[in-house]
Design goal:
Distance between the termini: 44 Å
Number of strands: 9
CATH architecture of the largest domain: 3-Layer(aba) Sandwich
Number of helices: 3
Helix content: 10-25%
Oligomer: single chain
CATH topology of the largest domain: Rossmann fold
Radius of gyration: 17 Å
Order of helices and strands: EEEEHEEEHEEH
CATH class of the largest domain: Alpha Beta
CATH superfamily of the largest domain: Nucleoside phosphorylase domain
Length: 177
């Protein structure tokens, strides 16, 4: 796996600090122009697929949501050759028909974060990126079908609201969403 590009990256959220069943593990530290990623990236094999895994909050949940260096995380995965990234988050639902333990495969996002860098396009470089459909529908369908095959309850399509954190939304904000 030394010179092989890792095409699949998984970013773990709260409570997801490793991928059960990964074998042939090794950790790599990636330098980026944006500083350090959240942690070392674990490279391994899961059921015949080479993957790169990065815990968003660092091992042991030591990085606050507002302090996550998103650009460094994405840059580091891209430097490894990652072409497809799946982000896992353990969050609450604002919908009664989406109970705890069920998976939502979001297809839209509302970003309510502030005071963090949100672009790779800095001074002297202007780039406009379409974001109307931010999720690869083919990948979402593939994950949905895998969930069904494993008997995991999942809903395809929905909106993920990302708050600034670490606080949760107020009741008024929840009612708004």
């Amino acid at each position: 796996m030394e010179n092989k590009k890792i095409k699949l990256g998984i970013i773990g959220g709260s409570g997801v600090y490793e991928i059960e069943g990964m074998q042939d593990l090794r950790e790599v530290n990636i330098e980026t122009p944006y500083g350090d990623p959240s942690d070392a990236i674990t490279i391994g094999n899961l059921d015949g697929v080479d993957i790169a895994f990065l815990p968003r909050h660092g091992k042991g949940h030591r990085i606050s949501p507002a302090d996550i260096n998103v650009r460094a995380n994405i840059w580091a995965l891209k430097k490894l050759g990652v072409e497809v990234a799946i982000s896992v988050s353990a969050v609450g639902s604002l919908r009664g028909d989406l109970p705890p333990g069920e998976i939502l495969l979001a297809d839209q996002f509302i970003d309510r974060t502030r005071c963090r860098e949100s672009t790779f396009f800095e001074t002297g470089l202007v780039g406009h990126v379409g974001f109307a459909n931010p999720v690869c529908s083919s990948l979402a369908e593939l994950i949905n079908n895998a969930c069904k095959a494993e008997g995991v309850k999942a809903q395809l399509g929905g909106t993920y609201v990302c708050m600034n954190g670490p606080q949760f939304s107020s009741l008024a904000e929840s009612n708004l969403y």
